Amino acid sequence: MYTHLFIIMCVQTFNKYFVAVAQNIHVNNHNANAQSNHENPISYLSRACNQPSPTVSLKCVSSKEIEDITKSLKIENSHEYDGISTKILKLNIHNISSPLT
Predict the structure, then answer these.
(1) How far is 101 from 65, CA to CA, in rounded Å?
(2) How many domains would you assign to the chain?
(3) Is it the case that residue 93 has pLDDT exceeding 60?
(4) Average pLDDT across the chain, whole number
(5) Predicted confidence (pLDDT) per residue in 8-31, tens digit
(6) 51: which DSSP letter?
(7) DSSP character for 34?
(8) Is the pLDDT of residue 78 over 70?
(9) Are the C-beta atoms of residues 69 and 101 closer than 8 Å to each other?
(10) Domain range enclosing 83
(11) Please, which residues bridge with residue 85 across strands?
C-alpha cells in the first residue's frame, strides 16, 4: 500500500514534469516562429490551408464486406484509443455496417 507521502511526491513529480513540458513547448515554438512572430492565427491558417492536400481515393464497399472483416477480428475485451472493444464492435456490427457503406 502506498503512503500518503509517496502519493504526494508522485503528484508533485508529475506536475513538475508537465509544467516543464508546457514551458519547453512554448519556448521551442516561440524560437521556431521567431521570424513570423507577428503573424495572426487567421493568416497562418489561411496560408497553411492553401497548400495542396494529398488525394484520397475511397472504394465502395458493401455492408457484408464490413461485417465479414469485423467478424474476422480477434475478440478482446481491451479497447483501442477510441474506447470501443472488438467484442462490442462484433456484437453491434449489424447496426453500424450499413451507415459505413
Answers:
(1) 9
(2) 1
(3) yes
(4) 75
(5) 777 777 777 777 776 666 666 655
(6) S
(7) S
(8) no
(9) no
(10) 63-96
(11) 79
Q: Which three cell numbers stand for residue 67?
A: 461485417
Query: Whole-angstrom Cα distance, residue 39 to residue 45?
Result: 10
User: Does 88 fall in a domain?
Assistant: yes
Residues of the chain above pLDDT 90, percent: 5
Q: For residue 55, which amino acid is it?
A: T
User: Could you tell me the three cell numbers for 87?
Assistant: 467484442
The residue among 69, 67, 88 whose CA lies nearest residue 78 is 88
Overall pTM surpassing 0.85 (yes/no)? no
Q: Is the pLDDT of residue 47 over 70?
A: yes
Q: Are 70 and 95 in contact (CB under 8 A)?
A: no
Secondary structure (DSSP) of 49-84: HTSPPPP-------HHHHHHHHHTSPP-S-B-TTS-
